[in-house]
Amino acid sequence: MVLDSSPILDRTFHALAHPARRSILRQLSDGECTLSELAAPLRMSFPAASKHVRVLERAKLVRRRVVGRTHICRAQDKPLADANQWLGEYRRNWERNFLRLDALLDQMKAEARDKKTGNPER
Amino acid sequence: MQRTNPLKITTPTDLDIVITRALDAPRHLVWKAMTSPELIRRWLFLPPGWTMSRCEEDVRVGGSYRWEWAGPDGKVAMAMGGVYREVVEHARLVRTEKFEFGGQPQSGEQVGTLEFIEQRGGTLVKISVAYPSREARDAALASGMEQGMAAGYDKLEAMLASGDVA
After folding, report:
1. What is each CA distance from B39 to B32, B36, B57, in whole angstroms?
2. Which of B4, B17, B144 has its CB closest to that of A89?
3. Which residues in A lie closer than 8 A to residue B33 (C-beta atoms)?
4. Do B136 and A16 touch (CB under 8 A)?
5. Which strand ranges, in their side-by-side order, compose the sheet holding A70-75?
6. A20-65 pLDDT, tens per residue?
7. Quick check: A3 and B102 CB within 8 A?
8. Does some domain include residue A46?
9. pLDDT, position B166
10. What residues make up the domain containing A46?
């Protein structure tokens, strides 16, 4: 379910798996860039850079608009805005883990006590 | 009703996540609960309808561990595993972590450190995970969101509702 219903996560993983795409995102964190500006430091052809940007677009990490013959790219704000929400859910999952640990440890402590006092197993 | 100890999550640098939580139990019991396969199964996150299809632990330096989860269709959909690098019984564990989603392994791996710190009759657990990149760390935080959404409501609530609290 986590996997099957998580195409967004899959795309994010895939999009971030390439150093060129991470570099593009870093560049875009300072503001909009044209595709040529993105391609130059990567020593890449325009079509090669365009392909990487397309992967980032699919993961909704980058948006591209075309003005005449210029492709202008910008980082999407939403994944950043989601950061707090990510942390929130991550926290809830760990809180639940620890609540279950609390219950388990209470039981283990009781069992250890029973063993010491010779009470029969419950 | 007993007061719940607060959980603290921090991201001290761009590359890590640190979780701390006090537990009202001695170190050796916390250690046991977090390193024995049959006990890990009783607290580790599991969405409703899922099973932990495999949980193996070989807790010694160079030993490996492997956790697998199967979805409602019975197929293994998510896995995590790695190798223990440091083992100080009842005190400290360092292990590598690599996730797999649908048989597709994560490109890098992270290093998790578990510390069990004695305090006021209980134990402070500190979990630090160091990721290879900021993107990888943020993706891990994102996976928490995905799981939360997928789970809908959590196992604990279901357990409380059914009165099945061991």
Report:
1. 8, 5, 11
2. B144
3. 101, 104-105, 108
4. yes
5. A33-34, A70-75, A62-67
6. 887 888 788 778 999 999 999 999 999 999 999 999 998 888 999 9
7. yes
8. yes
9. 32
10. 7-79
By C-alpha distance, the chain B residue nearest A111 is: B29
pLDDT band at A87 (very low <50, low <70, confident <90, very high): low
Report percent pLDDT > 90 for chain A: 42
Backbone dihedral angles phi then psi of residue A116, each to the nearest 5 degrees: -65, -45
**pTM of the shown model:** 0.64
Contacts of B150 in chain A (CB under 8 A): 1-2, 5-6
Distance CA A86, CA A88 (A): 5
Q: Using the beta-carbon criterion (under 8 Å), do B44 and A86 form an inter-chain contact?
A: no
**Confidence (pLDDT) at A79:** 54
Domain count, chain A: 1
β-bridge mates for residue B70, sequence order: B51, B76
Which residues in chain B have Cβ-Cβ distances shorter than 8 Å to A78? none
What's the average model confidence in pLDDT over B156-165? 37
DSSP symbol at B1: -
pLDDT of residue A17: 73
- Report ipTM (2 d.p.): 0.80
CATH number for the domain running over B7-160 = 3.30.530.20
Place of tokens 């896995």: B79
CATH number at residue A39: 1.10.10.10
